[in-house]
C-alpha cells in the first residue's frame, strides 16, 4: 500500500503538452521509407504524414506496424464503479484509484492474448483481487447497480526483458517507444524526452548506461546505427 499516493488525470496533462502541436487524425496502417525520410499511410492508403523521422509509439499497435519488434501481448481488463471512490489510490498487486466520480480497480493479466473481450469472469477476478486487500470496497462493488458499473479491455506491450524499447530501429530515421507494459504513463514522459534528444542529437536526461539498456539494439534481431 502507498499511504501518500496520488492519482493523475492524464487528459489534464496531455492537452497542455499538445497545445500548438500539428495533429493528423487517422489510423496508421503502413510506415514506409522514402528517398528523403518516412511516410505514414492510413488504412485507405491516404498519406497521413511525411517526415524526416517517425516514432512508433503505439503500444501493442506498434507490433502491427512493425511485426519484427520483440513485443509480446498481455491483455487486461479494468473495472470501475460510480459513487464510491477510495480515499487514496492504493496498489498491492491489484489497484484501486479514485476517478472523480467513482473508483477504477483491477486489473487482469492474460499473457499471449491479442484480442481480448470484456467479460464477467474477468470482472469477478478483479473483484476478488480487490476483496483480498480492501474488503469494504469490494462490498461496495457488490452493492453498486449494473448501470453504475463499467469495464474496459486493452492489450499491454511487453518485451522479453520487461524493459521498454526506446531508440532507433533498423533504417535511419525510424524510432520506437513501446514495450512499456503497465507502466506507460509513469515512464513515457521521461523516455519521450530521451528519444527526442536522440533524434535531435542533444544531451539526454537519461544516463548513458540506462539509455543503452533501453535501446532496441540490445536485442539480437536488429542492428542500430550510431
UniProtKB/TrEMBL annotation:
Gene Ontology cellular component list: cytoplasm
Segments of this protein annotated with the region Disordered: 207-226
InterPro entries: FAD-dep_OxRdtase, FAD/NAD-bd_sf
Source organism, top-level taxon: Bacteria
Alphabetical list of Gene3D superfamilies matching this protein: D-Amino Acid Oxidase, subunit A, domain 2 (3.30.9.10), FAD/NAD(P)-binding domain (3.50.50.60)
Protein name in UniProt: tRNA 5-methylaminomethyl-2-thiouridine biosynthesis bifunctional protein MnmC
Highest classification ranks of the organism: Bacteria, Pseudomonadati, Pseudomonadota, Alphaproteobacteria, Caulobacterales
GO biological process, alphabetically ordered: methylation; tRNA processing
Keywords (A to Z) from UniProt: Cytoplasm, FAD, Flavoprotein, Methyltransferase, Multifunctional enzyme, Oxidoreductase, S-adenosyl-L-methionine, Transferase, tRNA processing
Keyword check for Ribonucleoprotein: no
Entry keyword annotation includes tRNA processing: yes
Domain FAD dependent oxidoreductase: 29-198
Gene symbol of the encoding locus: mnmC_1
GO molecular function: methyltransferase activity; oxidoreductase activity
Bias (Basic and acidic residues): 209-226
